[in-house]
Amino acid sequence: MPVAIRETIVTPDADGAVVQLRISDAALPDGPPAFAVTLQARVTIDPSAPLAAIQNAALKVLREELTGLLQETQKQATRAQ
User: What is the pTM of this model?
Assistant: First the structure.
């Protein structure tokens, strides 16, 4: 099964929403996934926006943060060699 967003929890707050995404390669009843991660991001978006727009906003925030983390760990790994 392809990796996909399996669950989205949107919690409105004063600045928009906190969005939690459960991403995996298996739906819950299909058994344990080979890949699974749960990520959370605060986004400045109307919590009543379409779900795809909320997911997109959260993924953009997560991409920015994870890209920075990846770059830092790459630098550390290079220095460690």
Answer: 0.87
